[in-house]
Amino acid sequence: METYLMKKRLIALAALALVSGMASAQSSVTVYGNIDIGVLTQNNAPAGGSSTSIANGGISPSIWGFRGSEDLGDGLKATFNLEGHFYADTGASDPRLFRRQSNVGLSSATLGTLTLGNQYSPAILAFAATDPRGLRENFSGLYPWAYNSGALTTGNNGNNDVGVFLQNAVSYSNKFGPVGIAGAYSTSETKGAVYSLGATYTGPVSLSAAYQATNLANTSERGSTIYTVGAGYTMGAFTGKLNYLRGTNKNAALVETSKVGVTGVGVDWKTATNNTVMAAAYYGKDKKNSTDKTTTFILSDEYALSKRTTMYGQLVFANAKSGATLLTTMVAGGTAPDKTTTLFNVGIKHSF
Fold first, then answer.
1. What is the pTM of this model?
2. Tell me, what CATH number does 173's domain have?
3. Distance (Å, whole) CA 265 – CA 130
4. What are the pLDDT digits (tens) for 116-144?
5. Which of 11, 22, 106, 303 fits a 20 to 30 Å CA distance from 242?
């Protein structure tokens, strides 16, 4: 009798181990991130004179995170993403542990993906498809997007983090062949609602359109509106991109304070399977301030030592007019007004 019970226990334990193994096989968690650091020199530094610094995030942000999924069957998955950033030059981290992403969702192969929590704006993800620099962490359309999304002119809407991350948000995305669509809504709560839409078409010709609107904090009044349209075309080793961004902002009295247009054009040349040369030009102008104009030229080279490690060099010429502000710049922190600033950045990015 004891032998019989022992065999039953062993069979039960084996079955439990098998089920547990199957469950773990259906779930996955990935630890990932980037470390991007380099040296940046420039003349006409905003503080005066020339400067040389150890620069964090030349082409990609330095980030770390966890993402995972669980197969629920019938093509349905549960997903999550936790992502924060840090400063590789000092080792400092943001006070908010997962400032970039902290979300959970359900994903269906046919019905699309529903995500709740802190997440990337669908609009900026669409914008990235045709930005001439692919929204590199520095010297790209990322900065007019961020600076024209309300952070500078309409006060702090706590749901809109520099136009890139949306808190208290629910989003839906899906793909229909080469067409991708996505939308998100950040619930007002006490911070102000944010509406974000993005659409892309992927092929030899790529197209994108994006729209994002942010209400003033604690009101239902629109504080900032930003949209972009763009196109790209690939022919052999060359890819050309053209994009237009328009951002408008109002103050607390609902008076329009800025109306910025930024046109960007660029070409990527894949000189080898592991090397890409990029040339881009941006022209930014605020129609509410005739002296707020910045023209930026960027030449860069990115050489992949491996799938995970890339060395890069970037040369930038930024001509800022006398009234130039952050609203028309392509440089983090901007450049000195009424001057032509030259910046040179070399660095290395490693992904894990």
1. 0.89
2. 2.40.160.10
3. 9
4. 999 999 999 999 999 999 999 999 999 99
5. 303
